[in-house]
Specification:
The chain has a two-stranded antiparallel sheet. By secondary structure, the chain is mainly α. The chain has five helices and two strands, in the order H-E-E-H-H-H-H.
């Protein structure tokens, strides 16, 4: 089952979450590319945290771009991304995390 995340109004603006940008960049540093140019982990990260983090590199490209440009949906936090089961289908990812189609 998927988790539903509800956030209230807070002074913290997730659009300025530098930790999320840093985590996304770290996830890509943990990857190599296969013969087809697709990202693939060279080896499974040792720690559970890094294994959760590397999954961010497999988010839909437009979601990654929005995060880097600080245009992700309000309330979307690194904790939510790293703890959620991320669907393989990019349209399902966008729906689950509140990104426009």
């Amino acid at each position: 089952g998927a988790r539903a995340w509800t956030t209230g109004a807070t002074r913290h603006d997730a659009r300025h979450d530098r930790a999320m940008i840093k985590a996304l960049r770290a996830a890509h540093r943990m990857l190599d590319t296969d013969s087809g140019g697709m990202p693939s982990p060279e080896a499974s990260p040792r720690s559970p945290y890094l294994r959760r983090l590397v999954r961010l590199a497999f988010l839909a490209p437009e979601m990654q771009q929005a995060i880097l440009e600080r245009r992700q949906p309000l309330g979307l936090m690194l904790e939510q991304l790293s703890r959620s089961k991320i669907p393989r289908c990019w349209s399902e990812q966008r729906r689950l995390f509140g990104f426009p189609e």
